[in-house]
Amino acid sequence: MEERKVLVAGGNLLQAHTWKGLLEACGIHVELRGEALLGGIGELPTGMQNVELWVGESQYASAQVQLNALDVESPQWQCVQCHETNEGSFELCWQCSSERSESHN
Question: Boundaries of each RanBP2-type domain copy (predicted)?
Answer without folding.
Answer: 73-102
